[in-house]
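Morning run. Coffee first, then this:
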Amino acid sequence: MPEQAVAVAGGIIGGILLFVLLGITAYLLWKKFCRLFSYEKLINPVKTTNANAIFQDQAKSEIHLKSTRSRSVPFIIPPTLHGRDWIHLTNEEQVQQDRDPFMTPQSGPRSSFHSLAGAYVVGTINPDLYKFPEDKSETDFPDGSIGRLWFSIEYEQESERLLVSLIKVRKLQPPADSCSSFVKIYLLPDERSYLQSKTKRKTLNPQFDENFVFQVSSKMLLQRTLKFLVYHVDKQKKHHLLGQVIFPLKNEALTEDNKLVIWRDLEKEILEPPSEHGDIQFSLSYNDYLGRLTVVVLRARGLKLQEESPAVETLLLGRVVVGPFMYTRGRELEHWNEMMSKPKELVKRWHALCHST
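And here it is:
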């Protein structure tokens, strides 16, 4: 009896194993049949390519890209993804699944593929859509432009310092062919002092890249105005004002984290109308070696002459005082300080006459 029981159990186990083997064999055959069917259904027969075929495909791709209206850049699938198959979904999008490594991607409904030495062009990208806006500040100049100035400003709250960076000037219009330029920077209404850049010689487009510091309290900051004066120095070392920029600070949000880079077109010097009692123009020159001050009266305008008085008489029509800080302020002090900073040079200015007392 025990032997019969063992034989029966062995037969049952053998039958089960045979059934499992038959099932595995049937599954593998079905899998192979499905794979062969997918080869015929989805993919064209793969052709071996040689070097000539690759170059021909590249030439066709280049012709196709050149024929497009907009300049475009091919979007390419790298060769490492060639072992994946592309399956079309109902929404015409495409996903990738791991399939036979010898299968090649099939053309999608929205793009065509071109062989590029082992890679495939899926479509094109228009690079114009990804460009930053072009800076036209150095190309678009208005008619009659006399130049354009770039600078940046920043304010340090803790140290109460206004940081001014003079960057560059473009398209200057000097009285001569060549130009040697420098810039004076004022923080108005203080006209007693100014900061001056280095002189850039023989260029109509000077690049300065210089930093300047003005000490000013935060309470007074928004009441101040930056003034830039651009000068040309000729061969006789005479200074010619080429243009100016006036920049009030009242409308700017100046913080340490907000560095403003600004450009402004140069404006011609605005000649003020004659003052109430008239104006006088004269030049000052100081020779520090000889200790000699030279004053040359050049022109006058708007003088108030009395009709009943002969013009040839010596009449006191007004006065002006030019000197150091102890005696003067404003334009008169600025004229004096500029003369002292440029020994032996002629420095000329207009001054308003005051009523004689």
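The chain has four helices and 16 strands. Good start to the day.
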